[in-house]
């Protein structure tokens, strides 16, 4: 039994190592480049890959070896020429990379804050972490959101919440905690008659979103704490979204009350959250090892950013549906429903009216 456990630990180390190697390869554009200059019939040397990327060949060789031993790319029998299987290329390359591939890019930014997190755990340590401590957070997050939601956001999610016709005819929409704007841009380009406002608490997210606004006339981004939104917005929005941005607010209770205030009397609030049960035993049964990845993400990111004040609720990623429903009720919402949307496998969708 304990022998099996030791084997399990070895597997964990190997998978962690492969995950970091994937993230590094992705960051360096190594997969795109390798695919563009090689095939099973004509594999590429590390020098060829390195030259194309203007990188040091010795480092590129080592990373290619790690990826080949990890069965992410292929290597010839001499151990010095590499390629990517055809059927794996669309998973790792191009604008629509698979979410299971993209997820690996989260871990390096967690590694960056490892020692800070040790400090946060201490009784006399800081309350939590600031978003600015996470390198490339908004870019990583929008890449993840794209990988998770792009295929089904307009096709399945919008019809599921029953807002397709109203969005087509033209309504006013708010996205709370919009990050650098993936959902706003995606929806704005499909529904040109509607107007979209994205708010986020950090100026960095808003600056990045504004930098991508090129050509979109129906979007606006504002730096604003969702717990204290514009006073003139009462009863203003037909539709308010939160995409994965409730559980990592310090005072989501205040934000939800604000969303209730700014929603029109006949408006709809749609909140996309992580589909947790609030019970770690059940999460483990339902999600297996994936549940561990969610709790780990919570430890390294969602919990510390949502705990970063003396009055923070500190919900964490896996706070769970029952708690979510209660928070919505306490904020004045009615007709609260929790739905699943195709393609949003890790999420549940709360729908509610004023
Ligand atoms: C996990 S990210 C989600 C970003 C984006 N909605 C997405 O799905 O790609 C959470 C976002 O909530 C924002 N946020 C956290 N607390 C906030 C608050 N009190 N008011 C507004 N935005 C907040 C963060 O800056 C971050 O961009």
TrEMBL record:
Domain of life of the organism encoding this protein: Eukaryota
Coiled coil regions in record: none
Organism taxonomic ancestry: Eukaryota, Metazoa, Ecdysozoa, Nematoda, Chromadorea
Methyltransferase domain mapped to chain residues: 168-275
InterPro entries, per database record: Methyltranfer_dom (IPR025714), SAM-dependent_MTases_sf (IPR029063), WH-like_DNA-bd_sf (IPR036388), WH_DNA-bd_sf (IPR036390), WHD_Rv2258c (IPR048711)
Name this polypeptide is given: Methyltransferase domain-containing protein
UniProt domain S-adenosylmethionine-dependent methyltransferase Rv2258c-like winged HTH: residue ranges: 17-91
Annotated CDD domains: AdoMet_MTases (cd02440)
Database matches in PANTHER family: METHYLTRANSFERASE DOMAIN-CONTAINING PROTEIN, PROTEIN CBG10435
């Amino acid at each position: 039994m304990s022998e099996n456990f030791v084997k399990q630990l070895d597997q964990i180390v190997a998978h962690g190592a492969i995950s970091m190697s994937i993230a590094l390869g992705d960051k360096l554009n190594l997969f795109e480049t390798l695919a563009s200059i090689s095939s099973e019939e004509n594999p590429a040397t590390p020098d060829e890959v390195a030259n194309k990327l203007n990188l040091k060949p010795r480092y590129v060789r080592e990373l290619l070896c790690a990826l080949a031993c990890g069965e992410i790319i292929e290597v010839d029998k001499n151990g010095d020429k590499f390629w990517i299987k055809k059927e794996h290329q669309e998973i790792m390359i191009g604008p629509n990379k698979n979410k299971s591939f993209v997820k690996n890019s989260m871990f390096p930014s967690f590694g960056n804050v490892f020692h800070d997190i040790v400090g946060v755990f201490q009784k006399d340590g800081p309350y939590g972490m600031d978003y600015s401590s996470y390198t490339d957070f908004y870019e990583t997050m929008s890449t993840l959101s794209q990988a998770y939601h792009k295929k089904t956001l307009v096709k399945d999610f919008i019809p599921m919440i029953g807002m397709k016709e109203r969005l087509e005819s033209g309504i006013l929409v708010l996205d709370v905690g919009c990050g650098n704007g993936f959902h706003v841009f995606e929806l704005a380009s499909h529904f040109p008659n509607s107007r979209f406002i994205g708010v986020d608490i950090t100026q960095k997210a808003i600056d990045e979103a504004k930098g991508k606004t090129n050509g979109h006339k129906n979007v606006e981004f504002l730096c604003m704490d969702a717990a204290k939104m514009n006073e003139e917005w009462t009863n203003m929005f037909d539709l308010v979204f939160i995409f994965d941005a409730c559980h990592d607010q310090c005072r989501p209770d205040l934000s939800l009350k604000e969303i209730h205030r700014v929603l029109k009397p006949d408006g709809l609030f749609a909140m996309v959250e992580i589909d947790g049960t609030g019970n770690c035993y059940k999460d483990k049964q339902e999600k297996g090892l994936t549940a561990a990845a969610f709790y780990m993400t919570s430890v390294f990111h969602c919990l510390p950013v949502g705990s970063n004040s003396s009055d923070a609720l500190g919900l964490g990623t896996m706070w769970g549906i029952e708690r979510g429903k209660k928070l919505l009720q306490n904020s004045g919402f009615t007709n609260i429903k929790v739905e699943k949307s195709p393609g949003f496998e890790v999420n549940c969708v709360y729908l509610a009216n004023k």
